[in-house]
Design brief:
This protein has 220 residues and is α/β, with parallel strands linked by helices. It has five helices and eight strands; from the N terminus they run βββαβαβαββαβα. The protein has a single domain, classed as Alpha/Beta hydrolase fold, catalytic domain (Rossmann fold), CATH 3.40.50. An eight-stranded mixed beta sheet has the order 1-2-4-3-5-6-7-8, with helices on both faces. The protein is globular. The mean pLDDT is 91.
C-alpha cells in the first residue's frame, strides 16, 4: 500500500507491507545514504516480516544531513502512531547504514521527550560506526543513551564498522543488545561466493527471530 506522509511542506514516499492478519506490531524501515526505500535488502526484509505477521512501513528520505534524516524518521513514527488504519501497540525502528543512525537518533530524542512504550527496539543493518579508515571518530553518541533492545547486523569485513570497535561500543551500551555478524560481508552486505538472496535470507531470519524474542507474540 503506497502512502505519502506530510513532512513540512513536502511529502515522504512510503510503502506499507501489510500482513494478512491484523498486525499489532510494526517495523519502520529506511535506507542508507544512497538509494531509496526500494533498495533490494529493504524490500526483501519487509516482505519477509509481513509474511510472518509484522507490519512494515518503509520510506524514502533523500539527503546526507543526519539531522534532516532524523526529523523525517520522527515524522514517520508520529504518522504511524496516530494512524487509524493500523492500531499498533508498538513499533521497532530499523535502518540500513545512515538510516540506522537516523533511527538511533530518533530513539534517543524521543526518550528525552516522553516515556511511552511505543518504540520497542532498534534494528541496525550495517551501522556506520565510523567513516572508512577513520576509526578514531566513532558515531556512538546516540547508541550509548538508548535503553530499548538493539540488534546489530553487520558484516565482519565492513569497512565502516570494525568488529572490535562495535563490540567495544556494545559493551558500554545500557540497552539489551545483540550483534549478528555476517561472515566476510562488506558494508553493502556482499560476500564473495554467496548470492545476495542467500545473505538476505540469513539477515531476514535473524531480524525476525530477534523481533519475536522482543515482542510477546503469543499475546496476540
Amino acid at each position: 500500500v503506497k502512502v505519502t506522509i506530510p513532512f513540512g511542506n513536502k511529502y515522504l514516499d512510503a510503502v506499507f507491507s501489510v500482513p494478512e492478519k491484523k498486525p499489532t506490531c510494526g517495523v519502520i524501515l529506511t535506507h542508507g545514504a544512497g538509494g531509496d526505500m526500494n533498495f533490494p535488502h529493504l524490500v526483501s526484509l519487509a516482505a519477509y516480516l509481513a509474511s510472518r505477521g509484522v507490519l512494515c512501513l518503509r520510506f524514502t528520505c533523500k539527503g546526507l544531513n543526519i539531522a534532516y534524516r532524523t526529523k523525517a524518521f520522527k515524522t514517520v513514527v508520529e504518522y504511524l502512531k496516530l494512524s487509524d488504519d493500523y492500531k499498533l501497540s508498538g513499533v521497532f525502528l530499523a535502518g540500513r547504514s545512515m538510516g540506522s543512525r537516523a533511527a538511533a537518533s530518533v530513539i534517543h530524542q524521543l526518550s528525552l521527550e516522553d516515556d511511552d512504550d511505543f518504540i520497542q527496539g532498534l534494528v541496525c543493518l550495517s551501522y556506520p560506526l565510523h567513516r572508512p579508515k577513520l576509526q578514531s571518530k566513532l558515531r556512538d553518541e546516540d547508541l550509548l543513551f538508548i535503553r530499548c533492545p538493539v540488534l546489530f547486523v553487520s558484516g565482519s569485513a565492513d569497512e565502516m564498522c570494525e568488529k572490535q570497535l562495535l563490540e567495544g561500543v556494545a559493551s558500554k551500551m545500557k540497552a539489551p543488545k545483540k550483534i549478528h555478524w555476517i561472515d566476510k560481508a562488506n558494508h553493502g552486505m556482499a560476500v564473495k561466493g554467496r548470492t545476495t538472496d542467500d545473505v538476505m535470507e540469513e539477515i531476514n531470519a535473524q531480524v525476525f527471530s530477534w523481533l519475536r524474542e522482543n515482542i510477546e507474540l503469543e499475546h496476540k
